[in-house]
Amino acid sequence: MSVSLADAATTAVRTSPLVTINDIEPAGTPLQRAAQRRIHRARRDLKNIEGATSFGRSVAAFLPELEPQCFAGIVRNYRRVLLIGDREAVGTVAGTARPMGAEITDPMPVIGAGAATFRAAATDAKERAERTTGRRFELLRPDASAERIRAIQELQVAVGLTPLPGVFLRGRHGEVSTITLVGDDGRLLASATTVGLANVGRRFSASAIIVGVAVAAEARGLGLGSGITGAALVEAHQGLGAEDVIAVVAPKNTIAFKTNARFGLLPRAEEQALYVELGDGA
User: Fold this and answer.
1) What pTM was computed for the model?
2) In this structure, are residues 240 and 47 in contact, taking their beta carbons and an 8 Å threshold?
3) Nearest to residue 58, comparing CAs of 40, 76, 81?
4) Angle at CA of residue 212, ends 211 and 218, nearest 5°
């Protein structure tokens, strides 16, 4: 009897010592919920494999930390893998998945900056947004209500992102911090999540990645794009101890490029990222 990917992922998460099925608080389409469960299955299964982890909507593989021969197996198991690393190596390793029938997207820029570059500008943007709104950015607590988790997920869907699972947002899967800004009426205005990469390998031992940046439509024009990015950068440095922060940005997302450039997060010529998908991608 065949077992669907979603059922297999659900079984893996249910038996994981790190998380129960009720902790996931999945949201979005059935395809997105299956992707969220894969994130958790990966965080359990890959914890002892250097060079691979999961965040956002994907399992991620980092070169050169990941042994190239492991990559095709990860794609086969998790269906959608974000490959990050040196340009030439990324192309070579991605090619190992082509015989499996995997689709490979166009390359995407990896942007990044060190704390010495972004620290002052990030603090300023955070504080300026707080003055403008009269509200303070807050770190999401592990015991946040289900309503708050769903509000973050719905905001991510509204801006075109695949929503992050509740247990991930709560920081119960390692070094993960979610920053939020809530309006006077209790509505969520902005959120962003930073993920520490210490488990990936030596090259990224003091790095973090920003994912899930979202600003509510009614809050645009208040500087919250810069504000929530700045708050996330401050948390990455002060909370997660990151001395370097990266992000992967779709080439057409000019707003994200401009916002991140204000903090010195610029494309790294020697690095790129791309998705390798073996169907069932969300």
Assistant:
1) 0.87
2) no
3) 81
4) 145
